[in-house]
Design goal:
Alpha-Beta Plaits, five-stranded antiparallel beta sheet, alpha+beta, 6 helices
Length: 165
């Protein structure tokens, strides 16, 4: 049996992690094997994110202490918490990894919802976050869109000069 002092220590540690994370995802991990949990943790670690499993009541208290309002009724089943690191890249990476793992392992991992910048988001919002391309891809797409009008103008002027001669 866990003592009150141990519970307070767990809540304090969870509060610290929840406060530092820019993305917090709640997942239901029913029937997840140790092997799959390790695979999930390794994938999240590559994205500078973490995965914590704890009692729902302690998670709720830690979230409340961190200034997050969690509806305990939404946290059904066995609940784990994905903690995306500081910064948008780490947060988006964590959301992508959770969505990808949930897609591959739909029978054992279900996304409940989460927090993005301290605001509650539902499952469709988490999936939308996971669909956002990385910063490098977005910058490449922007550069492509910016260069296309100039390239089109250059082609049009070349055609006009051909017809003029």
């Amino acid at each position: 049996m866990i003592t009150r002092k141990q519970k307070e220590e767990v809540v304090a540690e969870l509060k610290k992690k929840l406060s530092a994370a820019s993305f917090i995802g709640f997942v239901n991990f029913h029937n997840m094997t140790v092997q799959k949990a390790s695979e999930f943790r390794r994938a999240l670690h590559k994205q500078h994110a973490g995965y914590v499993v704890g009692k729902k009541t302690l998670l709720g208290v830690a979230a409340k202490n961190a200034g997050l309002e969690v509806d305990q009724k939404k946290l059904t089943g066995e609940v784990g918490v994905v903690l995306g690191g500081a910064g948008e890249d780490a947060a988006l990476g964590a959301a992508k990894e959770v969505a990808a793992f949930a897609r591959k392992n739909a029978e054992i991992l279900k996304i409940i919802g989460g927090f993005w910048d301290k605001s509650w988001i539902e499952l469709p919002d988490v999936k939308r976050l996971a669909a956002i391309p990385s910063r490098e891809i977005l910058l490449t797409q922007l550069a492509y869109m910016l260069t296309q009008p100039m390239a089109s103008l250059a082609r049009a002027l070349a055609e006009v000069s051909k017809k003029a001669t």
